[in-house]
Amino acid sequence: MSLGYYFLLPVLFSFLTPYFKKLGSFTLRGSSILLSLVLFLQTVAYVGVKLPQISQFSIKPPLGIAFILDGYSLLFLLIFTFSALVVSFYMYWFFEENSGRDEARFYVFFNMLIAGSIGMILSCDIFNLYIFFEITGICSYTLSAFNKDKLGLESGIKYLIIGSIASIFIVFAIMLIYLQIGTVNLGLIAQRFHLIDPKISVLIVLMLFIGFGAKAELFPMNFWAPDIYQGSISSVNGLFSSVVAKAYLFVFFHLFYLFNLGSKYMLFVMVIGAITFLVSEFTALNQTNVKRLFAYSTLGQLGILFMALSTNSSQTVSGALFHLTSHSISKLLIFLALGILIHKFKSAKIDILGNFKSGFLTIVLAIGFLSILGIPPFSGFVGKILILKGFALSQNYTAIAFILLVSIVEAIYFFRLTAMMLDKKRAKVTVKVGSVNYIILTLLAVLIILFGVYPSLLTHYTDLATNALLHPTNYLNYALGVGL
Amino acid sequence: MNLKKVLPLKHIVLSLLSSALLLSVVGLLMQVKTDMFKNVGTIYLNLNMQTAAANAVTSVVTFFRGIDTVGEVTVLFLATSGVALMLSATQRTCDKVVKQESFILNAGSRLLLSVIILFGVYIIIHGHLSPGGGFQGGVVIATAFLLLFLANPNMKLSHGILTLGESLSGATYVLVVIIGLFKMNILLGNFLPHPIGEIGELISGGIIPVVYILVGIKVGSEMSVIVEYFVKEDYYKEVCDA
Amino acid sequence: MNSIFLLLNLLPILFLYQFGGALHVSLPLTSEFTLSLIQTPLGTFFAYLSLISFLLVTIAQKSKKLACNYYVLQFLLSMAMLAIVLAGDFITFFIGWEIMTWSSYFLISKSNSIDIKSLQKYILFSLASAFSLIAGIVIAYSFAHSFDFSVISNSFKDMPFNIKVALIVLFSLSFFTKAGVIGLHYWVVDTYSKAPNLFSSILSAVMSKMGIYGLFLVYGNIVGYQELKMMFGTILNGTDFGYVLAWIGVATSIIATFKAITQDEVKRLLAYSSIAQLGYIIAVIGFGTTYGVAGAMYHTLIHTIIKLLLFINVAAIVAQTGKNRFSQLGGLIYRTPVSFVMLLIGIIGLAGMPPLGGFASKFMMYNAAIDTKFALILIGMLFSGAASFLYCYKLVYGIYLGHPTSKNLETTKEVPISYLIPQIILALLLVLAGTFPGAFIKIINPILVEFSLSTIPYSGLGVMNSAVGSFNGFFIMSAFVVFFVLILLLITRIKSKAKNNLNRFDISYCGEVPTQDTSLHFGFGFGTDLYRIKFVNAILKRSSSSFYESLATQTKKTSELFSRMYYGNIHNTMIIILLFFSTLFFIGVN
Amino acid sequence: MLDFFNNTQTIHMIIIIGSMALFFIGFYGIATQKNLVKVLVSFDIMESALFLFFIGLHYQVGLVAPIVDKNLKTFTSMVDPVPQAMILTTIVIGLAVLALGLSFGIEYYKLTGRNDISKMNELRD
Amino acid sequence: MIGLIILFTFLAVIAVALGAILSKDITQSVMLFMGVGLGSVVLFFIFQAPDVALTEAVIGTGLSTAVFLLGIRHTSQEEAES
Q1: Chain C residue closest to B18 (CA)?
Q2: Residue C100 located in a structural domain
Q3: Given an 8 Å threshold on Cβ–Cβ distance, is A289 in contact with D125?
Q4: Phi–psi pair at B103, nearest 5 degrees
Q5: Exposure string (b/e) for C200-233, b if CB count within 10 Å is 16 or more?
């Protein structure tokens, strides 16, 4: 068992995909599912193991590159591999329905998207992290253009342009770091970051902020994000929302706390997060396209997470990580369920989609909506109350009032959709849900309820993650190769 | 109407902004001290005798930071797949038309082909001894095919062989990385015997030349595919328009 | 299906009875949250209130073919309410509160007459109420470091004054919204009138009482009436705080009463009446005296009984005739005599006339106002009490008296027995409450002890004691029954002689002969005359809807403003990113 | 005069100014250019500028390339190999993104006849 | 001496880059961009980075330009007048 497999197995799979394709589509889909399953099971096997775990490449860490798994990355790893597993099952259905698509290449990009995201959260070397950033980036560009129609290509081009800007800023920052510190190992950088000239450190931080912030969809840099969601297929939307955006967020705060920027930039990140939340929730009110709507909703939730994660208090951060997990599951559920509807109606307009008739879909979508709104007994509630509790303990009443007020705006459009689903006056079209999707969606809904009524299942891991994030001593020791 | 009046203003503002940024960034970067800490590169140079590759850059690329190169190969592979995904459909729509080919160009390019490929192979194989390596050599090989395509657009690459080369070399590369785990208990360990001879000999450096040869094959075939797609795209477009 | 859920609804009652006040459960949710259920006298009172109401409504639902998910949601709702009233900490309370919100939302959405706008109104106000509640909860938590009621209650005294005020305001806003205080009642009428008919009874009778429970909990338990007195000082014999609250309540009841009179839809009238009655409760709840609390508590009980009775009665009529407006109903007294009697008992209770329970509760409330010397409040309460006679009259006349306004009303049959059983039970309860008002003192005294107020002396089942005086309910009831029987005999004697063979169109007014479609029913247009009274007209014309609608417009405009930024031009997005970088660079570096 | 120019300090200054000038030319380019191809060209210019900056600042007068040969048997007084390795990687990635972007652009042009990025506005409300 | 060479190469590269950005003709712009690449190759050689120089020559200048030229053959040649 080695952490390297998280990257190497998908790469091996991708390289061999042409041969899987020759063996027939069943083999192809099956092997992709198998791959996701293996990675997920490997992650599950890491649960309960003493953390951090390390897997070195070529040479011992401060010199070489290593993958390090601490509590913080374990949580994300669980989310990512689980999402990948769910989506790979869903894609089985998708390609059954949409034959003639370039299935093999989709699986290549899909698996590498996951592998790249996992690489970003595991790597302890900032240049290596940049490579994974690019892998994730290229996969996202292509996946958003996967439809090859006008909208898809447009979103691909837009994403590519933004990705290029972000990567240039990140490369610049890495160069400055290497020039100043003489290494790209995260441990050494963290150790020496306070020694560099403050002005240059501001420049470095700023460039990293622009680079990762633009990708993590922070406010003045997220005008592209809804377009990307609108142009791509909905399972990819689910991945963008629950995996890719979360991976960038992971890196953002990993670096934030490793470089110990909390004291200096906390307020700034918090305000940016708050503005993101406010603007996106208000904008979402005005949407007619369901994909755009949930894109804005994702942006809004990321805003809350940015607000809460930057606080440097273990209570709030733990709550935010809980909220993040629950948001990932809920958004995956929502996007996959919407995918079924969009496939049926061949449109993503809210007015048209509201005409479906399916008790099952209504229930799971309602569960997803309520969970994102933070209403008990669903998992979103626990996350939100933990965040609010954390803010209360630091007596930050402005943040509490802000979150609650904007949440009402959020409720407007979520319940408008719910009311539309429940409206009896519409001309209804019965939508059948296939057995695979039935199982997937039920699983996700059950998870949402389970984490809502029995949060201890998850809080254990979020507490681990919080501890690892806020006190990265162990991580640093491993990254520096101490005691290996 | 108004736009044209506004546009130059925008340009002026942006150029002024760029200049201002330029000045302040330059002012800032002047303070960069490159000698605050010992660079990791100097440590690599000291260690380089152990890896036994004459070209330190190669040993950094393929060994010390070897996983970067796996990622890099993956990026290239993904880009190729992306280009293929984008440009493959049009090839199906019209592909019967034959463009006249010039015999002289054809023969000349075929003549050059072997020379260029040989040069590419040389660059790949000598990657650990002299400047160059798998990426550079692979691209040189691809340019040979570019020449061929330009001379004769009807030329068809055997995709089976290219795919085989690409997949096999890629898979072998990954296996090499994993074998290190079993042999040396570290991923991408240099498990082949090294140093065998003196530094600077062709067979030295353990897995480094092996990796670069695999990368060379992979990059060569990938780049040929990209080039083929772009050339054919161009060509079919012309034909379809006619 | 109905029987299964009937039994299911019976279970928690038996369960609660079995525990008999000793229920104390705690369930660790995470390392930080512990859900706890504690049975207090106050909670037990409300628990029985809601559980029995659910049981009765489930009986009434027997005759309706309702799907399984309807019953499941309703059961969930009853459990949520149970969680609210038995909660020992705010997290349990809030979880129950939110589950109550969304399960009732889905129940309301099952109605055929509901539209998206009303649903949105309902859920947004409910969520606003919930968010105001949670804001209060976390602010309290930030000082008490616990969600437990007792801990928060203990540490309340040490909080800074502005935090105390903020807490009281936030909690009050939340519970006022649920109870439908004027200004925050925007959602109430639409929701009550468009919800499924039988479910409206739960909304009005039980769910609004959760707001009252919350107020009792906060004023009585968390803050404590003593603390309220110390915080705000006293005026006359009551507290300043109670005085302000009393005005809010009285204003609510007066305005809602006038609005109720002018309604044409039966359920809208009942909805406004519900707001008005809750106004009384809110008026006395803040007095901080024994009789204020007792009056509020008694009226809670009576109002629950009456509203259940009236809504079930109306639901039965609507189900039977398919009509829900006064202008379409009328003359049903001969077709559905039992229903008529039930409604009559209900409105007698509603109007607060002796000998029924309504009188006892009003008696307590007026007494409380006299006790605290809030004369103006008393006048206001009396005024709205008198005005409420009008809508009570409209209710009984519009449906049952006069002539039927359409043909098929003449062939209507008596409503199904399943509707009548709960009505009869409720009517009996109402009669009993009037006959033995002293029994209530036994219930209320433990609660008063819980609030550390002085108890009411108990002197026999029939006697209701108060600070100002006392009355014997049993005596009044006996006297009433004697007179009633006498008058009934008299009337039947006269009536048997009178012949009722006139056609209702055998009249002409101003020389015109009415046609079949001329509505001669008195219920039609009843109350429109009120607009001619200047003072009332001013009240009726004002509406909170314009405020909320302009709020909605502003939100929409803001949304449009923001969405203009996301217009999909990647070039400008790039420029914005670069400008953002430059700005931050110049700020950060210099 | 020549000594002044052979000074490492001076060379670094030239490199910083020159590469940053190049960088901000690219910066100006992406801010003003609307043609997709020219935007990609601008990105590549910016990247080239960064490469020059990074490699340049690790060059000092007197250091040689990190390759041993017949004359030089030990790895001493050589320039740092790590930046070179990193830049090598980045160049390849740049090519990958470029090829991908161009293929998107070609397809988009085929469908719409446009490659002006400011006019790509099908994706909006 | 080296400093002067670096200086002049930089000046040339900057001039070419400006031309590439400001040129209205796409093909011209791409060819000028190749000039930037060539200049960089020279500079990389001077900076004792033969590996990077070779890579830049083959990939950054050679193949990139080829891909560009092949790609822009069928996108619009002129910058659209706005």
Answers
A1: C582
A2: yes
A3: yes
A4: -65, -45
A5: bbbbbbbbbbbbbbbbbbbbbbbbbbebbbebbe
Mean pLDDT within A150-159: 92
Q: Per the structure, how many domains does chain D have? A: 1
Number of domains, chain C = 2
Q: State the residue range of the domain holding C85.
A: 1-209
Q: Is residue D25 part of a domain?
A: yes
Taking contacts as CB-CB distances below 8 angstroms, the residues of chain C near D123 are 568
Mean pLDDT calculated for residue range B179-201 = 81
Of the candidates C343, C359, C360, C341, the one whose C-alpha atom is nearest the C-alpha of residue C351 is C359
Residue D89 belongs to some domain of the structure: yes
Q: How many domains does chain B have?
A: 1
Selected for mutation to probe chain B from E24, E48, E63 (highest B CB count within 10 Å) is: E63
* Domain contains D125: no
User: For residue B189, what pLDDT band results from cuts at 50, 70 and 90?
Assistant: confident
Residues of E with Cβ-Cβ distance to B238 under 8 angstroms? 74
How large is the average pLDDT for residues A461-481? 92
CB D24 within 8 A of CB B22: yes
Q: Is C169 on the interface with B (CB under 8 A)?
A: no
3-state secondary structure of A349: strand
User: Are D81 and B41 inside 8 Å of each other by CB?
Assistant: yes
Task: Say yes or no to pLDDT of B239 above 60.
Answer: no
Q: Please, what is the Cα angle at B98 between B94 and B104, to 5 degrees?
A: 145
With respect to residue C582, please indicate whether it lies within any of the assigned structural domains.
yes
Contact B28, A199 (CB under 8 A): yes
Higher pLDDT, residue B15 or A320:
A320
Note down the domain range covering D110.
Answer: 2-118
Average pLDDT over residues A134-142: 95
Q: What is the rounded distance in angstroms from the CA atom of residue A18 to the CA atom of residue A20?
A: 6
**The token pair that represents B126 in the structure block:** 């000598």
Out of C575, C582, C589, the one facing B28 most closely (by C-beta) is C589
Give pLDDT tens digits for C159-209: 999 999 999 999 999 999 999 898 888 899 999 999 999 999 999 999 999
Chain B hits for A178, CB-CB cut-off 8 Å, are: 39
Show which subunits contact C, needing at least 3 CB pairs below 8 angstroms: A, B, D
Q: Between chain C and chain D, how many beta carbons pairs sit less than 8 Å apart?
A: 27
The domains of chain A are located at 261-453
d(CA C354, CA C205): 22
Using alpha carbons only, give the angle C336, C262, C427 rounded to the nearest 5 degrees: 35
Looking at residue C184, the DSSP 8-state letter turns out to be S
Q: What is the pLDDT of residue C517?
A: 65
pLDDT at residue number C531? 80
The tokens for B189 are: 């360990």
Token digits of residue E26? 């796409």
* Nearest to A126, CA basis, from A212, A50, A199, A41: A212
Tokens of B213: 């040869």
Whether B206 and B51 have beta carbons less than 8 Å apart is answered as yes
From C191, C209, C227, give the residue that closes a domain. Answer: C209
Using one digit for the tens of pLDDT, what is the confidence trace for C451-478? 888 888 888 888 888 777 788 888 888 8
Tokens of B229: 């797609």
Which of B9, B12, B16, B21 is the best mutation test for C, with the most CBs of C within 10 A?
A: B21
Instruction: Give the domain range for residue B151.
Output: 33-241
Residue B201 token pair? 């000999």
Three-state SS string over E8-31 comes to: HHHHHHHHHHHHHHHCCEHHHHHH
Q: In the structure, what pLDDT confidence band is assigned to residue A166 with cuts at 50, 70 and 90?
A: very high
Least Cα separation, residue D7 to chain C (angstroms): 29
* A168, A286, A287 member nearest D43 (Cβ): A168
Assess whether pLDDT exceeds 90 at residue A397: yes
Q: Please give the structure tokens belonging to residue B193.
A: 């015997």
- CATH at residue D100: 1.10.287.3510
